[in-house]
């Protein structure tokens, strides 16, 4: 029996008039035992349960479920500001919020009917990754911890990328993984900056996406300002999970799920969106 819980339709009041239309389309995606609880007109708590490694746990809200990428809502210019905190500084897996193009096409989680073909990543977000992760193609940038990060990639035909799927097992052969990682740097532009401070305390995060520029701030301080801005249409995503992926310079690729000795959660209030 699925014991996940989402009281997503219980508004707890009215969202500000200038933001209400921007919240339309946000929907939960849950694995068994996870929760998405709406705590105010533009406030939520996302929680994944205690559990062992070997089983994926996710609590997420997004506004692109069931849509083709060309129908994703957001284009530059746009602005996202929210207050958020996590249950601990170093949660197993990953969590965060921002904009991306859902490049891996995992549209079937939570019963969503659409499975997208893969795409190269385009994203601008605040991303928190536990130490088991190594999520940078570049050797000169942080690969886990709290990150303000952007990705900009050409929009190659999805069918062309899908043809490369049979080669994915080669990622687990270190010499080939090192070569593919170098190739990835030539195709995918990436910028990131480490976020200092305590993510378990309430903090204010601001993402401004312009044409040809992205500016990411924490508590009023610019953490990253870069011309490496995403292109195309993107979806809004806020999530917490227990997954890890490591693509380190030595080519020893690792991926999987981590144990949760205690429930893990994030809380946030959307202050500006549009």
Largest sheet: 8 strands, mixed
The name CATH uses for the topology is Jelly Rolls
Cα-atom radius of gyration: 18 Å
Number of strands: 17
What is the CATH architecture term? Sandwich
The termini sit apart by 38 Å
Shape: globular
* Overall average pLDDT: 89
Q: Helical content, roughly?
A: under 10%
Indicate the low-confidence ranges by residue numbers.
107-113
The computed structural class is mainly beta
Side-by-side strand order of the widest sheet: 1-3-4-17-6-11-12-13
CATH class: Mainly Beta
Number of helices: 3
User: For this entry, what is the oligomeric state of its chains?
Assistant: single chain
Strand residues, percent? 35-45%
Short descriptors:
38% strand, 17 strands, globular, seven-stranded antiparallel β-sheet, Jelly Rolls, 9% helix, 3 helices, mainly beta, 274 residues
Structural description of this entry:
With 274 residues, this protein is mainly beta. It has one domain: Jelly Rolls (Sandwich). It is built from 3 helices and 17 strands. The longest helix has 14 residues. The radius of gyration is 18 Å and the shape is globular. It starts with a strand and ends with a strand.
Structure at a glance:
This protein is mostly beta strands and 274 residues long. Helix content is 9%, strand content 38%.
